[in-house]
Write a structure and sequence with these properties.
- With 809 residues, the chain is mainly alpha-helical.
- Helix content is 53%, strand content 4%.
- It is built from 30 helices and 10 strands.
- The N terminus and C terminus are likely disordered.
């Protein structure tokens, strides 16, 4: 099998995130000037985790109960399996009540010693519990130091009432005083995000570039997604922090993976490692499967009994959370955004209830309700009815049946408006394949959206079968992509001062990773291989700039934001003032989005759907008007400076609506006041980002009009791993029939300067296009970045994942 040999090279980062005057980052720091916390690896990550766990005490109790929970599940299961005589319990065996002898725990232990499988499970569980115990002790020691860091350095004691923005601002301030990062005089917000989200940004990028095998098409079935916590854990183990992983520590990629000369050897080594980890998963499959079943039984049985309809509820899938995540988006920011989109997503999915199932469910619910009503009436008349065999069980099952049937009966007041619901969803989730727009009423769109927003029952079922499916995916799907994975980490890794090795996509550099169809035309030099799909770079940049208004972006990024702002004002000036009278003084943030969603653009899409240019223009005008009204004074995209008056009026409305006296609030705790202020600003920032997402999608739709839609949801010509093109095909002059790769470009030889991208177009190879990273050995660096020493600063921990469109054949 011929290998698909492509020339790759490391290029220096196009810009430095360091503040002006720090071009020479290698400064000498005397021992006495070093912070007492500089030795803590992943300081930012521990600070963030402790904040999200509401302080040291809550974290400690949570960790202790996790250890106790593991012991309880194993011990209680062994007790039920070996120490209970079920024939006596179910009265299937005669019992001599005059016999006073009892079965004791030592008698149970004899039965356990004779069961080899139980002994094996106990040994594996014991080893795993000891591992968790050691990790618990280490984490407690680290978090105790982080607690001291909060108290002594950050001067923050009421952690549950402090927002992350406040904590982050304090970290930026104390950098000069405590020098917690010895390689930089100042830390930026982006530095902190990089150190916390290092591995998660890599996973987001790999999903965005369709590198991870989580999409499959089985014979006779539609394309499906399989991505579970077990599979995610194995991806992280292989790439980031397991033995033999690609990273030598938690902030630095191993040097051999930064060079392209031995890529084939490294790919073979990685494939071998994936194989062994897959075999280990296969051997441990029985134990993990038993644990998954027991944990699910103990966790969900009581919930299902109390709320039988909970299995019919929906949740954002792991795949959905990965696909919808921005670069440099913290966990709480992501979950807050998705939580706001939960209700419209549920309404959208409920629009597609089958009429046939509705008829059946109504009649089944009627019959079951009739039987249940009779049993309840008899029970009320005489409680001895409950002692009749199976009556209590029948009442329970009938109640469950009625609850399940109700989930298939739609609300009689529901209006079928899928297009508008999908637009509301887009305002919160920010990402959507191009072909969904205008096709929201189709079952194909609904089925694809269900991969992001799945039933809770499907989520539980996938977790239960994960121990069986995960080894298969590792051995037969991930292993064949080892060469592409090696190339990805080499080509999309950049070293940042004070941060270490990070994913170059996380730099949100429009010039390096922008997409021409997402307002980056003329500003990006990226080839198809280097472009982030679905507008990920542009939308992530806007989200980060809005979430962190104090961040000073680089020059290229500032130019992109300024150009967007100018276009907003130009579109807003062209819209008539009486068409969309949005005003910050008369409308709260959610009303702004609601007015935009229900504005003329929606009506236009209904009545003039055949004229897409009219629809797009109306949508752009509405979005521009909304953005301009959100920041009327300065026209800035940042909130804190322009929303002081709005903040005051909004707080007054909130206090008046809740009956709270303003004097009570003003005399209350400063922590509560700060939290209220932060919540108001966060609400306005969320609103601004929602409108930006709608506005940018309208721009993208306008730019894409008349062109082939290019998105990553369905890549019919997805990459066939690192299998190569035969030499005789590679030498043909016409490249249109090449089974090209979507995950790395191709070249015909060392002297070739072009490679074939999507649709057979010729694009620049990686050799002439800037990416992030190191220059190849023997080549001069083309950027102004200087080479850094190996020792970087403290950083983050393991990774997480995203969406992917790889088809395993």
């Amino acid at each position: 099998m011929a290998h698909f040999d492509t020339e790759y090279q490391r290029l220096e980062a196009s810009y430095s995130d360091s503040p002006p005057g720090e071009e020479n980052p290698l400064m000498h720091v005397p021992e006495g000037a070093k912070s007492q916390w500089h030795h803590i690896e992943n300081l930012d990550l521990y600070v963030y985790n402790l904040h999200q766990k509401n302080g040291f005490t809550c974290m400690l109790l949570g960790e202790i109960f996790e250890l106790v929970q593991l012991l309880f599940v194993v011990g209680f299961t062994v007790f039920l399996a070996n120490c209970v005589d079920y024939d006596i319990l179910f009265a299937n065996k005669f019992v001599n009540h005059t016999d006073s002898s009892k079965v004791t725990l030592p008698d149970c232990a004899v039965g356990i010693r004779d069961n080899a499988f139980v002994i094996f499970v106990l040994i594996i569980s014991g080893v795993f519990w000891l591992h968790r115990l050691v990790k618990f002790i280490y984490n407690v020691c680290c978090y105790w130091e982080i607690r001291a860091f909060y108290i002594n350095a950050l001067k923050m004691t009421m952690l549950p009432y402090a927002t992350w923005q406040e904590v982050q601002a304090r970290i930026v301030e104390i950098q000069k005083e405590h020098q917690i990062c010895i390689h930089k005089k100042e830390l930026t917000e982006l530095d902190i995000y990089h150190r916390i989200l290092r591995f998660k940004n890599y996973m987001v990028a790999m999903v965005n570039k369709s590198l991870l095998p989580v999409r499959f098409r089985l014979p006779g079935l539609e394309e499906s997604v399989f991505y579970t916590r077990g599979l995610k854990y194995n991806f992280e183990l292989i790439f980031f922090w397991g033995p033999g992983s690609l990273f030598e520590n938690e902030w630095s990629l191993k040097p051999e993976y930064k060079r392209g000369g031995n890529r084939l050897e490294l790919a073979d080594r990685l494939a071998s490692r994936i194989l062994w980890i897959g075999i280990a998963n296969l051997l441990l499959c029985p134990v993990i499967l038993v644990w998954q079943i027991l944990y699910a039984f103990f966790s969900y049985t009581e919930v299902i009994k109390r709320e039988p309809g909970s299995l019919g509820a929906r949740c954002w899938s792991l795949y959905g959370r990965c696909y919808l995540r921005h670069f440099n988006e913290l966990d709480h920011e992501l979950m807050s955004r998705l939580s706001k989109g939960y209700k419209p997503a549920s309404k959208y999915m409920n629009c597609f209830l089958s009429p046939l199932l509705t008829v059946v469910a109504k009649n089944v619910a009627f019959f079951a309700g009739s039987l249940l009503a009779v049993l309840i009436a008899l029970t009320i008349y005489d409680e001895d009815v409950l002692s009749v065999e199976h009556v209590l069980s029948s009442i329970t099952l009938l109640g469950v049946c009625i609850t399940v049937c109700r989930s298939f009966i739609p609300d009689k007041h529901m209006v079928f408006c899928p297009e508008q619901l999908l637009r509301v969803i887009l305002a919160h989730i920010h990402y959507m394949p191009d072909h969904w727009q205008g096709n929201a009423h189709k079952y194909e769109t609904r089925d694809q959206f269900s991969q992001l927003f799945q039933y809770k029952a499907v989520f539980i079922l996938e977790e239960l079968i994960s121990p069986v499916v995960t080894p298969i995916i590792l051995i037969f799907c991930l292993r064949r992509k080892s060469l592409e994975i090696i190339d990805f980490f080499r080509n999309f890794t950049v070293e940042v001062v004070g941060v270490g090795d990070t994913c170059s996509f996380a730099q949100m550099d429009i010039r390096q990773h922008g997409h021409p169809a997402w307002m980056s035309a003329g500003k990006t030099e990226a080839s198809i291989y280097q472009q982030a799909e679905d507008g990920k770079t542009e939308l992530s940049l806007m989200h980060f700039a809005i979430t962190n208004p104090q961040w000073q972006p680089p020059q290229e990024t500032t130019h992109f934001i300024s150009q967007l702002k100018e276009r907003v004002h130009r579109e807003a000036a062209g819209a008539s003032s009486d068409t969309h009278p949005l005003s910050l003084s008369e409308s709260e943030p959610r009303s702004l989005v609601a007015n935009l969603l229900a504005g003329p653009s929606t009506l236009t899409s209904i009545h003039f759907g055949h004229d897409s240019s009219l629809t797009n223009q109306a949508g752009l005008s509405d979005g521009a008007s909304a953005l301009r009204s959100l920041s009327p004074n300065s026209g800035s995209l940042h909130l804190r400076g322009s929303l002081n008056a709005a903040h005051t009026s909004t707080m007054s409305k909130a206090m008046a609506g809740s009956g709270t006296d303003a004097r009570t609030v003003s005399s209350g705790s400063s922590a509560w006041e700060g939290q209220l202020t932060s919540l108001v600003l966060s609400e306005y920032a969320s609103t601004e980002m929602s409108i930006h997402a709608l506005y940018m999608h309208e721009l993208h739709k306008q730019q894409s009009h008349g062109e082939l839609s290019r998105h990553t949801w369905h890549r019919q010509d997805s990459d066939e791993s690192s299998d190569s093109i035969p030499d005789e095909v590679r030498s043909e002059p016409n490249p249109r029939h090449f089974p090209r790769s979507h995950t790395f470009p191709t070249t015909e030889g060392a002297a070739s300067n072009h490679s074939f991208g999507a649709r057979g177009r010729v694009v620049k190879s990686a050799r002439g296009v800037p990416m992030g990273g190191w220059a190849e050995e023997g080549q001069a660096a083309r950027r102004h970045h200087e080479t850094l020493p190996e020792e970087s600063s403290e950083d983050d921990m393991p990774p997480h994942i995203h969406k992917v469109n790889a088809v395993c054949v």
